[in-house]
Amino acid sequence: MQEEHRKAIQNNFISLVEQTDLEVMVAALYEKGVFSEQMKEVYEDTNKDARNRKRLLYRDITRRGPQAFGHLLDALRENGYWDFVRDLDPNSSLHLRRSRNPAPGTSKSSGDSNFVSIRTEKKKTKSGSDVNKNLTTAPTPPAPPDTKDAVDPTEIPRFEVKKSQKFVEDNNGGIALYRTRGRQRGLLVVFSYIEFDGIEPHRSGADVDCKNLKYLFTEMGFKVLVYQDLTKEETLETLHGLKEAVVGVECLFIVVSSHGHARAASSDNDFRCRKGGLVSLSYVLERFNNRNLPALRGVPKVFVFQLCRGSNQDYLTLPASARMDGAEGGGVGGARTAADGQPCPSTPPPERLLPQPLERDLQDRIYSDILIAHSTIPGNVSYRDEAEGSWYISALCEVFAAAAHERHVEELFTLVDQRLHAARRVQTSSVDRWGFNRRLYLHPGLYDPDE
């Protein structure tokens, strides 16, 4: 198979798995000779999870010779998957078509258990033009550059995202919930910096973090945007451009992954962009406060910073007898272990005087509904496995995949730190809450059609 065709399948891999009918595609591809009778039996084995069988199907297609891609397009076209034909083949004559005809047998996603797929149900609701008239379309976000984060079917994350089977309800008198039941569940925006033009070391393994995050949040029903290796100017431009794109989402996740540097005489940190520019974390947070983005007042905003916050690498050395039950070892010193930054003195921002409010003005706080998760504590390094990705993001993906269906986000981050400690021992994560006063459940795979 040509490299461009293989990449086209990689770029659409998750959507193909989620939105196509396994039985229909197996029959069509077998008929065209892509798979033999013996190979077909693997995809028809009902003792195995249907979603995993579909993953295997689309992974194997990339290995079935130069004609397999054309046969895949024909199978998709014959069964009404017009959008996929357009997405996979830019030269397709189907680019003039606008709507996807539902494929036979796709009224109920094959292999789905007792959950409702946001993606599948959303496709159903768009089958009629009358429904579309009642839906609010979010503004188009800045287009990511040609990122290298496409999910390679040979490297699909091995964790399975458990789906919610029911909504968590508000309990009278307790802590209220953020509302997360609609189709626009959320948006994940990832700023990942791997190459620095020789100014700082290449961040091997950071690409694995991108793949894992994209897979996790797509499975949970989020829209995902990944921006990789932007310069400082491009980063600032993108942050400003997101201002309109995030309106209407029920929750927002922002992930920044780079080399980090502690600011002198300040609790703030900078992260490195391509070509050497530095951007402060406080600047990122400020872009999404209630003054600069009032449309997101009351909307939960979760920031995850995977970067060093200093150069401290201290840790305790305990005797073997003091080892805690359940500890898996880990720690630093491995050949693949790297840190994401070092201290970099910089000038703290000048003090800013706020205008005095008029007596008749109603005063309110600038920051609210913000949760900030750091991969490490102030002054310390953050570790990364050069083959498996950063310690923290790896733990985050594992925990969210296993427990987001029944735990709220603050509990999830507590479990992330527990997992980080159990697996790696020496790194401590931290979480700050800025007016984040409700419980946030992500309800992966579930939505209320009336929302």
From TrEMBL:
Organism of origin: Brenthis ino (lesser marbled fritillary)
Gene Ontology biological process terms, A to Z: proteolysis; regulation of apoptotic process
Entry GO CC: AIM2 inflammasome complex; IPAF inflammasome complex; NLRP3 inflammasome complex
Biased composition (Polar residues): 104-117
Catalytic residue positions: H259, C308
Signal peptide start and end residues: none
Family: Belongs to the peptidase C14A family.
Protein name: Uncharacterized protein
InterPro entries for this protein: CARD, Caspase-like_dom_sf, DEATH-like_dom_sf, Pept_C14, Pept_C14_caspase, Pept_C14_p10, Pept_C14_p20, Pept_C14A
A Pfam family it matches: CARD
Superkingdom to which the source organism belongs: Eukaryota
Every Caspase family p10 domain range: 368-444
Stretches the record annotates as Disordered: 93-152, 327-351
Residue span, CARD domain: 1-78
Residue span(s) of domain Caspase family p20: 184-312
Database matches in SMART domains: CARD, CASc
GO molecular function, one term: cysteine-type endopeptidase activity
